[in-house]
Fold this sequence. Notes:
Elements: E1 13-16, H1 22-33, E2 37-42, H2 45-57, E3 61-66, H3 72-82, E4 87-90, H4 114-142, E5 145-152, H5 153-158, H6 163-183, E6 188-195, H7 201-209, H8 213-217, H9 233-239, E7 251-254
Parallel strand pairs: 1-2, 1-4, 2-3, 4-5, 5-6, 6-7
Helix pairs in contact: 1-9, 3-4, 4-6
Amino acid sequence: xxxxxxxxxxxxxxxxxxxxxxxxxxxxxxxxxxxxxxxxxxxxxxxxxxxxxxxxxxxxxxxxxxxxxxxxxxxxxxxxxxxxxxxxxxxxxxxxxxxxxxxxxxxxxxxxxxxxxxxxxxxxxxxxxxxxxxxxxxxxxxxxxxxxxxxxxxxxxxxxxxxxxxxxxxxxxxxxxxxxxxxxxxxxxxxxxxxxxxxxxxxxxxxxxxxxxxxxxxxxxxxxxxxxxxxxxxxxxxxxxxxxxxxxxxxxxxxxxxxxxx
Length: 262
């Protein structure tokens, strides 16, 4: 852990989408501690405001902005509120379970319905495109910018019963690599962090109900545990700093060794 990074990205402004909770919240907190002024985006104003209050309580600078990343008009309205930013973290996304009303369907592709595909593609890929397309011109104008997208090992390695979700995340990785090749000479870097299973939300609830569950699920992880929401945050700060000036077009796994990069 970086023990003192109180000004590591000082003077920078950052937007973290879907940061009212979970990994996005953790990244936002770490960026504020590293000196950035952070915009907390969420579709739920109360959640965004709560994170802002946490950052301010630590003497950081933060603001909330409500927007649906899947809606271009909403994204443009968000830009009107934030103005250009130096750092964009495309964190907003969802796995299969969050999109199925009450039934918790986690099924094979053959068993899935086309009506279940589109929401997954929309938030995990199209949302990344909308937000990046809106904020990229400001970075190009300043010839400095950092774009970081949070993806998944379901797209890097492939996972049964997460085929469409994995396809969306894999597409976000491909988009990031291509964009990195386009904008690198303009001072903008584009990278991804790929996550394994994170002990958060419904999974955290399940682990709390069954103390043996984490051990069973983590059997394939060399580190021997599931991910915590703070695990990717230090790397996110590093990749969005001047120290990462020569790092672009990369996908970095933060997954306890589940699927090595090489």
